[in-house]
């Protein structure tokens, strides 16, 4: 089984994030496979900032039209629905 370690790729260098391999040979090359996880970095613009912008535009536009009573809409959306195969 292949060993798995977490690292961050910066340019052409890997920096270990948690546990690192015990025995890395300093005098020879070591074959590795790198998988890009596409994790958002803290503080980087991403989904949360886009969501905040969208909500701000929605608030400036006067909110959701067609929803006369938000509490009634929430109660209706949370009402239990029949599940298939469970009579």
Features of the shown structure:
single chain; 87 residues; elongated; 2 helices; alpha+beta
Question: Mind sketching the topology for me?
Answer:
Layout: E1 7-10, E2 13-16, H1 47-60, H2 70-78
Antiparallel strand pairs: 1-2
Account of the protein in words:
- The chain has helices at residues 47-60, 70-78; strands spanning 7-10, 13-16.
- With 87 residues, it is an alpha+beta fold.
- Strand 1 (7-10) and strand 2 form a beta hairpin.
- It starts with 6 loop residues before the first strand and ends in a 9-residue tail after the last helix.
- It has two helices and two strands.
- A two-stranded antiparallel sheet has the order 1-2.
Overall 3D form: elongated
Please tell me how large the radius of gyration is.
25 Å
The portion of residues forming beta strands comes to 5-15%
**So how many helices?**
2
Helix content: 25-40%
Average predicted local confidence, pLDDT:
79
Largest sheet, described in full?
2 strands, antiparallel
Separation, N- and C-terminal Cα atoms: 47 Å
Numbering strands along the chain, what is their spatial order in the largest sheet? 1-2
- Low-confidence parts lasting 5 or more residues at pLDDT below 50? none
Structural class: alpha+beta
- Classify the oligomer: single chain
- Note the run of SSEs as H and E: EEHH
What's the number of extended β-strand segments? 2
């Amino acid at each position: 089984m292949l060993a798995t370690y977490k690292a961050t790729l910066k340019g052409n260098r890997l920096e270990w994030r948690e546990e690192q391999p015990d025995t890395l040979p300093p005098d020879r090359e070591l074959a590795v496979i790198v998988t890009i996880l596409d994790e958002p970095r803290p503080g980087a613009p991403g989904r949360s900032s886009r969501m905040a912008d969208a909500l701000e535009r929605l608030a400036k536009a006067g909110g959701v039209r067609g929803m006369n009573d938000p509490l009634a809409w929430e109660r209706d959306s949370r009402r239990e629905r029949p599940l298939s195969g469970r009579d």
